[in-house]
Fold this sequence. Notes:
This protein has helices at 2-15, 45-62, 77-102; strands at 17-20, 31-34. By secondary structure, it is mainly alpha-helical. It has one domain. The protein has a two-stranded antiparallel ribbon with strand order 1-2. Helix 2 packs antiparallel against helix 3 (77-102). The chain is elongated and about 50 Å long. Residues 1-11 have low confidence and may be disordered.
Amino acid sequence: MKTRNFATMATATLALAMTASPAFAGSAEVHTKMxxxxxxxxxxxxxxxxxxxxxxxxARSVCSVHENRIGTRLRSPELxxxxxxxxxxxxxxxxxxxxxxxxxx
Length: 105
């Protein structure tokens, strides 16, 4: 059983990828950001909160939130859509992971 848990943890760094169309690329280009959760206990509220923080940081990175824009501090509709897409995609993946873990997978 200990070996199985180790194998599950080893793949945890690869299992959660977040994809989103970049906010300002104007193309069908897709970026992916890996989010590591192998060190988290997703059964605990603290572990879930930490994963949410990592996902938010990854979404902001994928969508280039911190990219310098000239002329305005307002977020564009494209950026908002990118963030919403990234968060929704990650949320689906986390739900699948949590469901698998509850079933003992």
